[in-house]
Design brief:
The complex is a heterodimer of chains A (about 230) and B (about 450).
Chain A: E1 12-14, E2 27-29, E3 39-41, H1 46-56, H2 62-81, E4 86-92, E5 98-104, E6 108-114, H3 121-127, E7 132-140, E8 147-153, E9 162-166, E10 169-170, H4 174-185, E11 193-200, H5 202-211, E12 216-222
Helix pairs in contact in A: 1-2, 2-3
Chain B: E1 26-32, H1 38-49, E2 54-58, H2 68-75, H3 89-100, E3 105-111, E4 116-124, E5 129-133, H4 141-146, E6 149-154, H5 157-172, H6 176-195, E7 204-207, H7 213-245, E8 254-256, H8 261-271, H9 277-297, E9 301-307, E10 313-319, E11 323-329, H10 336-342, E12 347-355, E13 362-368, E14 378-382, E15 385-386, H11 390-401, E16 409-417, H12 418-427, E17 432-439, H13 447-452
Parallel strand pairs in B: 1-5, 1-6, 2-5, 6-7, 8-17, 11-12, 11-14, 14-16, 15-16, 16-17
Antiparallel strand pairs in B: 3-4, 9-10, 12-13
Helix pairs in contact in B: 1-7, 5-6, 7-12, 8-9, 9-10
The chains are: A alpha/beta (about 230), B alpha/beta (about 450).
Keywords (chain A): Glycosyltransferase, Transferase
Protein name (chain A): Uracil phosphoribosyltransferase-domain-containing protein
InterPro entries (chain A): PRTase-like (IPR029057), PRTase_dom (IPR000836)
Chain lengths: ~230, ~450
C-alpha cells in the first residue's frame, strides 16, 4: 500500500458474549476475516479488542504497552499450543478418583525473529517455563532491498521439535518467509511450524498461507492494511 | 420484569431463595438500671459463647445529637440522658429491622465529649445473635416485638450508684459532684419512671448481675440452642435447594471453559498426585489466568477511538468502570497470582468462609470488602473449587448484601460439581459463573492444599 492511502477500516461490528443482546454490545473494528484453513484468528472478544486498543493507542506508555501486549501474546501462545498433539492419559486424582485426561506430546522450541520477536519471549515463557528459544536475525539488504539472513542460533535438535515462530507484526511477510525457509532447511517439517503473530496485513498473510499451506498461523488481528514500515 | 427490591434481587421464586443464617437473627434485649451490671452480663454471655456471630449492640450509640443549648446543659449535668427522649428509637428500630432481614447496617458512633453523633459509623453485618444492651432496651414496644428474649438485670440501687461513680470518674473523667447531682436529678427518677416498669415485661430477671452464674448459664444455653436450630435450618435450606436445582439444565450464564487439548492437559497435570508442587503451582497459575481472562469478557466495554503511532484512527474498545475481585479464603488466594498477572492493580477483598466439618454448613468468619464495591462494574468472586456450592451461595449473598448487583458478580472457579452449579445458577440466575471443569459430585476441596502445600 502506498503511504498516502488511508487504510480502510474493517467494518465495525458489535462484540460481546452471546448472552448479551446486540443492543448491549459495544461496536468496534474487529479483525478482517480471511478464509485460509491454516490461518487461525483469536476469537474477537471485547476484551481482546480492548487489549489491542491499548497497544495501538499512541498515548499508551511503554510499561502498559509491554504489559498489555504480553497478555495478548499469552493468549496467542495458549491458542498456538492447542495445535500440538496430545495423547490420552489417565490419572488417579488426589481424592482417589480416576480422571481421563491428556498428556502433552512432542518437544517444542521457540524461535524469535529479531528483534521484534524477542518481545514475545516473555509471554512464551509464562506458558512454557523451560522452553528453548532460538534466534534468527533478518535485515533488509541495502543493495538488493530483499530480506537477508544475518544470523541464526537454533537448538541442535530443532528438526525433532515443534517450532513456535515469533514475530509480532506481519506486513509483507518477507522476514517471516525467509525465517520459515531457514527452519525448513534445518529439517523442520512445515507442518510442525506455528507462526505466532499479533497484527497481520491481509495480503501478506494470504501470500504466506498460500506459500506454506501446511504451516499454521495464529494471529490476534488481521488489519485491513498495515503500513509496511511498522 | 417482576418488581424486585434493589438489595434483595436474589430470588426467582420463594422456594429458590437462599437464606443465610444471619437472615434469621435472634435479638436478646438486656435492660436494667445504670450500674446494674448489664454490660458485664452481656460480655460474660459473649465470652462464654466465643463465636464471631454473637454481637453486643450498646444503645448508647443511639443517643440523639444535642443542640448547642442542650450541650451546655449536659456539661452542667443538667441534661437528662436517662429519659427515653434522649434516645433515637426510630433509628434503632430501623437498624434492628434491617439486621433481622440479614442486611448490613451502619451503627452510629456517639461522642460523649461532643454529645454528637460522629460522621463515621461502624458497619455491622451478619450476626446470628445480637445482644441489645441499654437501660431502656425493653422500653419501646416496636423493639419489644423484635426481641426474642427479654432480660432485666437487677441490682441494689446503692451498688448501682457506687459502680456508676467509679466508672464515670475512671472512664469518662467526670467529677463526683456532678455525678451525684445527675444521679438524684435524673438517673433515679428515670429509673422509677421508665426503667423499673420494664421488669414486668421481661422474660428473665437476673438479680445480682454478673455474680449470678446460674442465670447467665441458662441464657448461654438458650442461645446455644438457638444457634443450633439456625445451623440446622441453614443446612436444610441448602439441602432443599440442591434437590430443586438438580433437575435443571445449566443456565447460559454458566460458562464452561472450552476443553481444548492444552486445557485438558493442564487439568491432567493438576490432578496427577505425582506432579511436584512447583509444577502444580505453575500449571494452576497458567490455567487460572485463562479463567480470569474469560471472566473479563463479561465486563462492560465501551467504544473508544484511538490514534495509532502512524496517526491512523482505530475504533477500539475500552473497559468501563472498576473491576475488583473478592477471594473466598482460603482457597481463593490461590487464584490471586493469576489475577495479578491479568490486572496487576486489581482491588481485592477477602471473605473467609469455612465449611463446618460436622454438618457441612458454610460459616462466615471474616469479611473485608473494598470500599465502594457497590459501584464497581464487575466483581469477581474467586474460589478454586466448588463442590456443593454452599460457600459460593453465601459469598454471592454477602456481595449482594453489600450493594453489589447480582449481574455484576462473576464467580470464577477451576472445578465445580454440576449440582452445585445448578443450585448457584438457580438462586442467583443473573450471576455469571466461569468454570474450568465439571468435577464429580461431592469432591472434597483438595486444590488449595496442593497449591499452598499444607
Amino acid at each position: 500500500m502506498s503511504g498516502n492511502t488511508e487504510p480502510i477500516p474493517s467494518p465495525a461490528q458489535g462484540v460481546g458474549p452471546v448472552y448479551r443482546s446486540d443492543k448491549e454490545k459495544p461496536t468496534a473494528t474487529v479483525s478482517k476475516s480471511i478464509s485460509y484453513e491454516n490461518v487461525h484468528v483469536l476469537p474477537q472478544t471485547p476484551q481482546l479488542i480492548a487489549l489491542l486498543t491499548m497497544i495501538r493507542d499512541q498515548g499508551t506508555g511503554r510499561a502498559d504497552f509491554i504489559f498489555y501486549s504480553n497478555r495478548i501474546i499469552r493468549l496467542l501462545v495458549e491458542e498456538g499450543l492447542n495445535h500440538l498433539p496430545v495423547v490420552e492419559h489417565s490419572v488417579t486424582t488426589p481424592v482417589g478418583r480416576s480422571y481421563l485426561g491428556v498428556k502433552f506430546e512432542g518437544k517444542i522450541c521457540g524461535v524469535s525473529i529479531m528483534r521484534a520477536g524477542e518481545a514475545m519471549e516473555q509471554g512464551l515463557r509464562d506458558c512454557c517455563r523451560s522452553v528453548r528459544i532460538g534466534k534468527i536475525l533478518i535485515q533488509r539488504d541495502e543493495e538488493t532491498c530483499k530480506p537477508k539472513l544475518f544470523y541464526e542460533k537454533l537448538p541442535a535438535d530443532i528438526s525433532n521439535r515443534w517450532v513456535l515462530l515469533l514475530d509480532p507484526m506481519f506486513a509483507t511477510g518477507g522476514s517471516a518467509t525467509l525465517a520459515v525457509e531457514v527452519l525448513k532447511a534445518k529439517g523442520v517439517p512445515e507442518e510442525r511450524i506455528l507462526f505466532l503473530n499479533l497484527i497481520a496485513s491481509p495480503s501478506g498473510v494470504a501470500d504466506f498461507a498460500e506459500r506454506f499451506p501446511k504451516l499454521r498461523v495464529v494471529t490476534a488481528f488481521i488489519d485491513q492494511g498495515l503500513d509496511e514500515k511498522k | 420484569m417482576e418488581s424486585i427490591s434493589p438489595v434483595y434481587s436474589a430470588a426467582t421464586g420463594p422456594e429458590r431463595r437462599y437464606s443465610p443464617p444471619w437472615a434469621d437473627l435472634s435479638i436478646i434485649g438486656i435492660a436494667g438500671s445504670s450500674g446494674s451490671g448489664k454490660t458485664s452480663v452481656a460480655m460474660e454471655i459473649v465470652k462464654s459463647l466465643n463465636l464471631p456471630w454473637v454481637v453486643i449492640l450498646v444503645m448508647d450509640s443511639f443517643y440523639k445529637s444535642l443542640t448547642p443549648e442542650q450541650h451546655i446543659k449536659a456539661h452542667a449535668n443538667q441534661f437528662d440522658f436517662d429519659s427515653p427522649d434522649s434516645i433515637d428509637f426510630d433509628a434503632l428500630v430501623q437498624c434492628l429491622g434491617d439486621l433481622k432481614q440479614g442486611k448490613k447496617v451502619e451503627i452510629p458512633v456517639y461522642s460523649f465529649v461532643e454529645h454528637q453523633r460522629q460522621k463515621h459509623t461502624t458497619p455491622l453485618y451478619s450476626p446470628h445473635v445480637l445482644i441489645l444492651e441499654g437501660i431502656l432496651a425493653l422500653h419501646d414496644p416496636r423493639i419489644m416485638e423484635l426481641l426474642d428474649v427479654k432480660i432485666f438485670v437487677e441490682a441494689d440501687m446503692d451498688v448501682c450508684l457506687g459502680r456508676r461513680v467509679l466508672r464515670d470518674v475512671k472512664e469518662r473523667g467526670r467529677d463526683i459532684d456532678g455525678i451525684i447531682k445527675q444521679w438524684f436529678n435524673f438517673v433515679k427518677p428515670s429509673y422509677k419512671k421508665f426503667v423499673e416498669p420494664q421488669r414486668s415485661v421481661s422474660d428473665i430477671i437476673i438479680p445480682r448481675g454478673i455474680e449470678n452464674k446460674t442465670a447467665i448459664g441458662m441464657v448461654v444455653q438458650h442461645i446455644q440452642r438457638k444457634l443450633e436450630e439456625k445451623s440446622e435450618k441453614h443446612s436444610a435450606t441448602l439441602q432443599e435447594l440442591r434437590l430443586i436445582a438438580s433437575e435443571e439444565k445449566l443456565s447460559p450464564n454458566v460458562v464452561i471453559m472450552p476443553q481444548t487439548p492444552q486445557f485438558v492437559g493442564m487439568h491432567t497435570i493438576l490432578q496427577n498426585p505425582d506432579t511436584e508442587q512447583v509444577d502444580f503451582v505453575f500449571y494452576f497459575d497458567r490455567l487460572a489466568s485463562l479463567l480470569i481472562e474469560k471472566a473479563l469478557d463479561g465486563t462492560t466495554y465501551t467504544a473508544r477511538e484511538v490514534e495509532t503511532p502512524q496517526h491512523n484512527k482505530y475504533n477500539g474498545l475500552g473497559q468501563e468502570g472498576t473491576v475488583s475481585a473478592v477471594a473466598i479464603l482460603r482457597g481463593g488466594s490461590c487464584l490471586e497470582t493469576a489475577l495479578k498477572r491479568t490486572i496487576p492493580d486489581c482491588i481485592t477483598g477477602r471473605v473467609l468462609i469455612q465449611t463446618n466439618e460436622r454438618n457441612e454448613e458454610p460459616e462466615l468468619h471474616y469479611l473485608k470488602l473494598p470500599p465502594g464495591i457497590e459501584q464497581h462494574s464487575t466483581v469477581m468472586l474467586l474460589d478454586p473449587q466448588m463442590s456443593s456450592g454452599g460457600a459460593a451461595l453465601m459469598a454471592v449473598r454477602v456481595l449482594i448484601d453489600h450493594g453489589v448487583a447480582e449481574e455484576k458478580i462473576v464467580f470464577v472457579t477451576c472445578a465445580a460439581g454440576r449440582s452445585g452449579l445448578q443450585r448457584l445458577a438457580a438462586v442467583y440466575p443473573r450471576t455469571k459463573i466461569i468454570v474450568g471443569r465439571i468435577e464429580e459430585e461431592r469432591e472434597p476441596r483438595w486444590m488449595e492444599t496442593r497449591y499452598l502445600g499444607c
